[in-house]
């Protein structure tokens, strides 16, 4: 009856992923809102100013989508890409721009790197159980036992409880919802 700490926490992976996604999305949206509206702190950037105003648009819209969990993987992938561009363009410009230190603690790029890799993780792991995507999946494609759509392969830490047997669960493709059932 001995369980490991890892096994105990495994049942919380999807809710904790959701909490991480919500907090990261809200923080990202606040960065965008500060650029566009000057809220909660700072002065708004003039409309159309390249690249900061446009970055604010991406941060506000992607941050809200990520926080709500709607089109999460796409929004997180775009947000991760924006942060990668911001790091290499503004914080440590190896190809263009003034010389800056390689170390994120010196070049001010710590937050940018954390957002980049955090959103990359969300893009790979998905939104978690507490998301609009999870609710949409349940309505659109039908949900089987354990909260997973039938005929879908689910593995890893984002897999719902009950799928930790090591055997993959088959998933249909994007167009499987529109195919007629085979008799």
TrEMBL record:
<feature type="transmembrane region" description="Helical">
    <location>
        <begin position="50"/>
        <end position="67"/>
    </location>
</feature>
<dbReference type="Pfam" id="PF07681">
    <property type="entry name" value="DoxX"/>
</dbReference>
<keyword id="KW-0472">Membrane</keyword>
<feature type="transmembrane region" description="Helical">
    <location>
        <begin position="12"/>
        <end position="30"/>
    </location>
</feature>
<feature type="transmembrane region" description="Helical">
    <location>
        <begin position="74"/>
        <end position="92"/>
    </location>
</feature>
<keyword id="KW-1133">Transmembrane helix</keyword>
<keyword id="KW-1003">Cell membrane</keyword>
<keyword id="KW-0812">Transmembrane</keyword>
<dbReference type="InterPro" id="IPR032808">
    <property type="entry name" value="DoxX"/>
</dbReference>
<dbReference type="InterPro" id="IPR051907">
    <property type="entry name" value="DoxX-like_oxidoreductase"/>
</dbReference>
<comment type="similarity">
    <text>Belongs to the DoxX family.</text>
</comment>
<dbReference type="GO" id="GO:0005886">
    <property type="term" value="C:plasma membrane"/>
</dbReference>
<protein>
    <submittedName>
        <fullName>DoxX family protein</fullName>
    </submittedName>
</protein>
<feature type="transmembrane region" description="Helical">
    <location>
        <begin position="112"/>
        <end position="130"/>
    </location>
</feature>
